[in-house]
Amino acid sequence: MNIRLSDDPTDISWEALAVVFHRAPLGERKPEKLREAFTRSPVRCFVWDDDRLIGAGRALTDGVTFAAVFDIVLLPEYQRKGIGSRIMEHLAAASKAPNLILHAVPGKEAFYRKLGFRKMTTAMARFSNPEKQQEQGYIE
Ligand SMILES: CC(C)(COP(=O)(O)OP(=O)(O)OC[C@H]1O[C@@H](n2cnc3c(N)ncnc32)[C@H](O)[C@@H]1OP(=O)(O)O)[C@@H](O)C(=O)NCCC(=O)NCCS
Questions:
Q1: What is the C-alpha separation between 36 and 70, in angstroms, rounded?
Q2: How many domains does the chain have?
Q3: Which residues line ligand 1 (CB under 6 A)?
Q4: pLDDT digit string, tens, across residues 79-119
Q5: Which range marks the domain in which residue 14 is found?
Q6: pTM of the model as a whole
Q7: By alpha-carbon position, which residue is closest to atom 10 of ligand 1?
């Protein structure tokens, strides 16, 4: 393995990133939507093994108080090797914000707990499709 983290979107195949999301799994994403979300996010991380795109993550930040982390994702064969933790540290450093918030995929809380995250007691979300989010375990 020759793992490299980069924030440069220039050589990204958004189709390849959609395959990473599909296989991880982290849902079905349209390549064009991924391109928009990642290029508009001020903080990005793409993970390469030599010339193969194997993972990613992104964050929105105000650069002084808060950053929100989204879409940390790795191909299954690269999971549980410490790479997800490296993505988080890359995003945290690049966000330049002391406070990070996120919502975990149900079942993945332990990954974030190990990185110092704690459950928020008053977190709330207004989703466009609350029934689906409730079904998936994101809201009560
Ligand atoms: C979740 C994910 C990003 C974690 O990245 P990773 O590289 O596999 O995690 P790391 O190897 O850095 O794990 C660090 C620690 O977090 C914990 N952890 C990681 N994945 C876990 C899991 N699935 N279940 C329980 N604990 C987990 C472990 O304590 C692990 O340490 P250990 O392997 O020494 O026991 C990755 O597994 C992934 O892409 N999953 C599919 C997509 C997804 O669900 N993304 C998260 C969106 S919220």
A1: 14
A2: 2
A3: 24, 26, 72-74, 79-85, 104-105, 108, 110-111, 114
A4: 999 999 999 999 999 999 999 999 999 999 999 999 999 99
A5: 3-102
A6: 0.97
A7: 82
